Amino acid sequence: MATATYDCIVIGSGPGGYVAAIRAAQLGLSTACIEKGDVGGRCLNVACIPAKAVLRSADIVQEIRDASEFGIGVGEPVVDFGRVMERRGEVVSTLTGGVASLLKKHKVDYIEGTASLTKAGTVSVAGQELEAGKAILLATGSVARSIPGTEFGGRVIGTEEAWALSELPGRLAVVGAGASGTEIASAYVRLGAQVQLFEGLDRVLPSEDADVSKVAARAFKKQGIEVHTKTFVSSVESHEDKVTFKYGDEQGEADWLVIATGRGPDVEGLGLEAAGVKVADTGLIEVDGMLRTSAPRIYAIGDLVAGPALAHKASEEGVIAVEHAAGHDPRPLSYPDIPRATFCLPNVGSFGLTEAQAKEAGYDVVIGKVPYGVAGATTVYGDRTGIVKLVGDRKYGEILGAHIVGSKATDMIQELVNARLLEGGYPELATMIHGHPTFSEAVLEAARAADGWLIHG
């Protein structure tokens, strides 16, 4: 077997893997990046990016439908779903091509093949045995998980397949009303499908603040999504042209049933046991603050380890891991401060503790909550349906968490993350001048509400 030696070997070329590989190369480490699929991993090829491309088309459809409110008469939009998916492919090709170019620019060796760790602490791939002098970084991401009693196949699909349908479905059933499920439901209902959304817990977006869930649920129902909470799907059967299932005491039927209830780490065939990499009872790889596993020189990041399964979290973990391997002393990641973004309509952006979590943790909680309507720009742009909610600690003025639902929420949340990371509290944020008229003025007003002097409310 041919052998090669690098300073750093990265297994996986998704947002965690390719960013880590490039950063390692910037630090002077000879680096190889291994990918068993297409460059860019699942995120760029079949998950995050394709999803947002289709969602953008759905956003355009909605804007056209709302155009008459602004004095623009264009009639009912016609969805060319073939073109929607063609553009999706163009977006993916552009971005994956960019990743390939970046790897080449930074002289990262890109190797195609399925990699596995060996007992000797090397990496076996494509008939080669690779040795790493400083680090082997595991960044293989996640795979879909089904629901009890149901297997993927036929017309029972996961989220990746849902974003790659060749024809616009007439009826779509989505199981799981978290970020992925609500994005799929919100996209397809606006493109013209009949959509049912099922959630076993008592509200949609159950990991978000309860006030955010309420606003989102109302918007979903207004869009035409048939929302079922506290409802479990069972007895799923895939047929040639449809899928049947039960929910509660009722019988359901759809063209496709999408399972969006969660994902698990992609570790099959990776050779963790042989390499001595310890795995927790959850199936996730155990790591320390520098992302080191129990095995010497082996690091793991992203969906393989604890924390939110987010692309930007994986990227930052990759940077921390290779900087540590290169002899630097990076700051460990603060997981509560990672922003979360859901691109359904309305958008949801959040970070930190919810109101319930803050109270449970024993804080003297203060809430600054305002409707979007406090900012004049939301009326100008025709979208007052949203809220900004700030969760703070009364004693020290600390921002414990923030939750936004409405237009531009996924962008606006970053200001609140930055304020916290720069050790600013809601009293400081309440005196920071915001441009007028902008959506961000709602953030200013939420801070003032928390500080006890709301102006526009």
Helix content: 25-40%
Class derived from helix and strand content: alpha/beta
Radius of gyration: 23 Å
Report the CATH architecture of the largest domain.
3-Layer(bba) Sandwich
> What is the count of distinct domains?
3
Name given to the CATH homologous superfamily of the largest domain: FAD/NAD(P)-binding domain
Shape: globular
Gap from first CA to last CA: 72 Å
Task: Give the strand content.
Answer: 15-25%
Mean pLDDT: 97
CATH C-level class of the largest domain is Alpha Beta
The profile of the biggest β sheet is: 7 strands, mixed
Please name the CATH topology of the largest domain.
FAD/NAD(P)-binding domain
By DSSP, the count of extended strands is: 22
Number of helices: 14
Ranges where pLDDT stays below 50 over 5 or more residues in a row are none
List the helices and strands and how they pair.
Layout: E1 2-11, H1 15-26, E2 31-35, H2 41-45, H3 48-65, H4 81-105, E3 109-112, E4 116-117, E5 123-125, E6 128-138, E7 142-144, E8 156-158, H5 159-162, E9 171-175, H6 179-191, E10 194-199, H7 210-223, E11 226-229, E12 233-238, E13 243-247, E14 250-254, E15 256-259, E16 263-265, H8 272-275, E17 298-300, H9 311-325, E18 340-342, E19 348-352, H10 355-360, E20 365-371, H11 376-380, E21 387-393, E22 398-405, H12 409-421, H13 426-429, H14 441-451
Parallel strand pairs: 1-2, 1-6, 2-3, 6-17, 8-15, 9-10, 9-15, 10-11
Antiparallel strand pairs: 4-5, 5-6, 7-16, 12-13, 13-14, 18-19, 19-22, 20-21, 21-22
Helix pairs in contact: 1-9, 3-4, 3-6
